[in-house]
Amino acid sequence: MGFMDDAKETAKAVGEKLKDSWDDTTDRVNDKVDEMKADAEVRKAEAERDSVKTRNDIKEDLRDN
Fold it and tell me: Which parts of this chain are annotated as the region Disordered (predicted)?
């Protein structure tokens, strides 16, 4: 019976280790997705800022003429 108990304990420990590894990997993937979303939002905001600046520069040039 001791061998079976050891095998069960070993299998349980391996299962817990795999679950912990899976949870860590899932967290890392979610962190990366969040980072990529934030980068996309920054790029969008910068593009909008540049667009507004260009539009304002054009308006200012038209006022001067």
Answer: 1-65
